[in-house]
Design brief:
Elements lengths: L7 E7 L5 E5 L5 E8 L4 E9 L5 H12 L3 E5 L21 E5 L7 H13 L4 E4 L6 H9 L4 H21 L19 H21 L4 E5 L2 E6 L5 H6 L7 E5 L15 E7 L11 H4 L2 E7 H4 L2 E5 L1
Parallel strand pairs: 1-8, 4-5, 5-6, 6-7, 9-10, 10-11, 11-12
Antiparallel strand pairs: 2-3, 2-13, 3-4, 8-9
Helix pairs in contact: 3-5
């Protein structure tokens, strides 16, 4: 369709002349993939979170060791706790590069404050990736419906503040030259919490709407497709995916599917899941042509590489 959302064409473009490895870690309900390349010695973390405490120790140890002496980049698919909660436990590594969704909005109060606390600690420049054309008014309108007039005004100011913070910091890369963040508009926190309690589900869905979906290219060819936590509505409006792929990382732990994936070919389907994660969407079985299906809750860590 002419107005379909687009998957970001390139986040990384690797070559098989340089060996690399992607390790998908079993973090329970959450997401964490580690992309390692020896030349240059770079580690790229594709999400870094878990909401399953029993699965965190091994992942934290692995990532801490992987990032201890190498340049580290972080791709944050979206602003949910189970996608960035392990940043502090691994020791808050200084980031060479941070890639985040174009619109940094999350209404869930704890995740919002914790993400920006982490952002203040790290040393990085903001990098904005536009994964698709976003229809802002229609999406944000869903959250506004249950807000009072006062809360709606705060909502607008908060969104504007976050957008300005991203724009101001885009070129700030030196660790001693952080983006200067304005204070948030004043708001009674107790009142705000009560208001957000009513709208938290809608707010979390908004963060999903801004989830990055992107290709990992190897020798200018499709290798891996990451769908973040894109909701079904977005996956139905993405331009059709053109394969074949070596790996497809299922959206929202495999629980969401969209027509953009109909008839795509892949060698491996991967789902990052916990024991209480909802069942995998039947679309991955019914429409995607695959050789092997892999789920971290069943199979543990998985490494995929090119030597």
């Amino acid at each position: 369709m002419a107005d379909a959302y687009r998957i970001a064409k390139v986040v990384f473009n690797l070559s098989c002349d340089t060996p690399f490895e992607i390790r998908f870690l079993d973090v329970g309900h959450g997401d964490c993939a580690v992309l390692e390349t020896p030349v240059p010695q770079t580690v790229t973390l594709i999400d870094l979170g878990s909401s399953t405490p029993t699965n965190q120790t091994g992942a934290v140890d692995f990532v801490r060791n992987a990032t201890s002496s190498r340049q580290t980049d972080l791709v944050l698919s979206h602003y949910h706790w189970d996608h960035f909660s392990l940043y502090s436990p691994i020791g808050n590594p200084k980031l060479n590069r941070l890639i985040v969704p174009a619109v940094p909005f999350l209404g869930a109060r704890e995740s919002l404050s914790q993400f920006f606390a982490i952002a203040d600690i790290a040393s990085y420049g903001y990098y904005r990736i536009l994964p698709r054309t976003m229809m802002m008014q229609g999406i944000l309108g869903e959250a506004r419906k249950s807000l009072s007039d006062n809360d709606s005004d705060y909502f607008e100011k908060l969104l504007a503040y976050l957008s300005r913070a991203m724009s101001k910091g885009q070129s700030e890369r030196d660790k001693d030259n952080h983006p200067q963040r304005e204070p948030l508009p004043p708001k009674n926190l107790e009142e705000l919490q009560k208001s957000l309690d009513k709208t938290e589900k809608a707010a979390k869905e908004i963060a999903d709407y801004f989830s990055l979906a992107f290709n990992l290219l190897v020798d200018d060819k499709n290798f891996a497709l990451f769908l973040g936590d894109c909701p079904n509505r977005i996956l139905d409006q993405l331009s059709p995916v053109v394969g074949p792929y070596a790996v497809i990382k299922g959206a929202h732990h495999g629980t969401r599917y969209g027509s953009c994936l109909d008839d795509v070919e892949t060698t491996i389907e991967i789902f990052s899941r916990g024991s209480r994660t909802r069942p995998i969407h039947e679309g991955y079985r019914k429409y995607v042509t695959f050789q092997t299906s892999y789920s971290t809750d069943r199979d543990g860590d998985l490494s995929i590489g090119c030597n």
